[in-house]
């Protein structure tokens, strides 16, 4: 059995009940086989892969808080500090009822490679809670965030571990978390990113993930003598990533015709009116369904199936494993040529393999959604310097980072004779830097 297969079997045996983590590890190990095979003895004797798949530390804790009825609620809190070879742990916090250790380990593992690809000095981590912010009052969200941070603040810091947002954690939550960190630790430091602009946040951080997705899509298209101009695009989700992907794609001449949330999807053949989506999602914290009531010609369909809408470009920006084999088959049958992931691992392994085998140009999230965390790293730099850069400066840096990521993953794929296999390219390019740094630092 090859070394990569052995390590995968060990991961499955030693981490029972963690299917998402197994899935993320398998994809990476399968990609790395060509690299490992060249130098298997060395990697094996140093247990490089065993170290890579084992988080440096997992913190798990109780989060008690009082709801508006005076009842005490208890949630689970976690921080997975996966790898600090190239910088302090960096990665978001997810608040969603589905959160468990498997999901946070998969996200933390992906984050290690993603952060490496940004070229910036950030290690990988992820955290969160099974708390569901949906339907909670501001006071309840604050009570939860304060309790969560009262425990988490013992383990994080501007040079140790810098969390940010993810699903269910936006500007409001980051504000409450930052306030409690400062109060308990008595430190005004850049311990979280995605902060508000009045207290150390960076311009463009809100837009960064979605903009980055479209910047790298644009590079991919340019490299294949194509452009977004006049293309029909479907963007899944309607959170922060989706909203700003729609904005940038529209600015670059595309027509985005559909978005969704976990209840259903909207189709607007005239092109999505983003002001209305923003009002529904960002101001009213409502459901995407309302769009069809407010916009003439738009329809709402309850349930899954957004992939039935014909498009040239599909940007899955909702959540893990949202796009399966049937979905991808339908997309391709309808002429879809590009799939670029805005969410983390939104495409199942079968769907990814099918798409790539059938001529779709596919960019994996760890490369294509890296603009968010990259801009977080820019926020960390500004906090350390106690300066704030203009939005033009940050946007230009973000754009260049995405151009560089495309070049890196395309080059790695070519070096291993798999041109346009950006899954392999991203995994190899991300791995090379992390492993080099780990080896240089000895047995740690
Ligand atoms: N949660 C985002 C991600 O998946 C952003 C993390 C960050 O900004 O630290 O990369």
UniProtKB/TrEMBL annotation:
Record's keyword terms, sorted: NAD, Nucleotide-binding, Oxidoreductase
Binding, substrate: 90, 111, 114, 165, 376
Record has Secreted as a keyword: no
Domain Glutamate/phenylalanine/leucine/valine/L-tryptophan dehydrogenase C-terminal: 202-442
Binding positions for NAD(+) per the UniProt entry: 209, 240
A GO term, aspect molecular function: glutamate dehydrogenase (NADP+) activity
Protein's UniProt keywords contain Transport: no
Origin: domain of life: Bacteria
Site (Important for catalysis): 166
GO aspect biological process, one term: glutamate biosynthetic process
GO annotations of cellular component type: cytosol
Matching SUPFAM superfamilies: Aminoacid dehydrogenase-like, N-terminal domain (SSF53223), NAD(P)-binding Rossmann-fold domains (SSF51735)
Annotated InterPro entries: Aminoacid_DH-like_N_sf, Glu/Leu/Phe/Val/Trp_DH, Glu/Leu/Phe/Val/Trp_DH_C, Glu/Leu/Phe/Val/Trp_DH_dimer, Glu/Leu/Phe/Val_DH_AS, Glu_DH, Glu_Leu_Phe_Val_DH, NAD(P)-bd_dom_sf
Active-site feature positions: 126 (proton donor)
Pfam families: ELFV_dehydrog, ELFV_dehydrog_N
Family: Belongs to the Glu/Leu/Phe/Val dehydrogenases family.
SUBUNIT field: Homohexamer.
PANTHER family registered for this protein in UniProt: NADP-SPECIFIC GLUTAMATE DEHYDROGENASE 1-RELATED
Name of the protein: Glutamate dehydrogenase
Species of the source: Blautia obeum ATCC 29174
């Amino acid at each position: 059995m090859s070394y990569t297969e052995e390590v995968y079997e060990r991961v499955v045996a030693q981490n029972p009940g963690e299917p998402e983590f197994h899935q993320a590890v398998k994809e990476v190990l399968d990609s790395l086989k060509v690299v490992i095979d060249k130098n298997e003895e060395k990697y094996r004797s140093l247990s490089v892969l065993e170290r890579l798949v084992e988080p440096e530390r997992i913190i798990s804790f109780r989060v008690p808080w009082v709801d508006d009825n005076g009842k005490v609620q208890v949630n689970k809190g976690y921080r997975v500090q996966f790898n600090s070879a190239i910088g302090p742990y960096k990665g978001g916090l997810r608040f969603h009822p589905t959160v468990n250790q498997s999901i946070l380990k998969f996200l933390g593992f992906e984050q290690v490679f993603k952060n490496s690809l940004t070229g910036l000095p950030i290690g990988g981590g992820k955290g969160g809670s099974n708390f569901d912010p949906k339907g909670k009052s501001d006071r309840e969200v604050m009570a939860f965030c304060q309790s969560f941070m009262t425990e988490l603040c013992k383990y994080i810091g501007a040079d140790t571990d810098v969390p940010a947002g993810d699903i269910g954690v936006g500007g409001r939550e980051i504000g409450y978390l930052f306030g409690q960190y400062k109060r308990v630790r008595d430190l005004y430091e850049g311990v979280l990113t995605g902060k508000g602009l009045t207290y150390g946040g960076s311009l463009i951080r809100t837009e960064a993930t979605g903009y980055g997705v479209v910047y790298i899509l644009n590079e991919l298209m340019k490299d294949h003598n194509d452009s977004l101009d006049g293309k029909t695009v479907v963007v899944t989700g309607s959170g922060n990533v989706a909203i700003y992907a729609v904005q940038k794609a529209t600015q670059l001449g595309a027509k985005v015709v559909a978005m969704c949330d976990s209840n259903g999807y909207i189709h607007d053949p005239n092109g999505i009116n983003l002001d209305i989506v923003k009002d529904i999602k960002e101001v009213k914290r409502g459901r995407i369904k309302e769009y069809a009531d407010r916009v003439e010609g738009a329809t709402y369909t309850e349930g899954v199936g957004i992939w039935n809408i014909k498009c040239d470009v599909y940007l899955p920006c909702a959540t893990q494993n949202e796009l399966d084999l049937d979905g991808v088959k339908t997309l391709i049958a309808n002429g879809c040529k590009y799939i670029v992931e805005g969410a983390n691992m939104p495409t199942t392994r079968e769907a990814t393999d099918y798409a790539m085998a059938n001529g779709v140009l596919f960019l994996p999230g760890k490369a294509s959604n890296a603009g968010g965390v990259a801009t977080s790293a820019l926020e960390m730099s500004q906090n350390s310097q106690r300066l704030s850069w203009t939005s033009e400066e940050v946007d230009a840096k973000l754009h260049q980072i995405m151009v560089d990521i495309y070049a890196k993953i395309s080059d790695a794929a070519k070096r291993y004779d798999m041109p346009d296999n950006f899954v392999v390219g991203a995994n190899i390019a991300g791995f090379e830097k992390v492993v080099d740094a780990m080896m240089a630092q000895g047995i740690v």
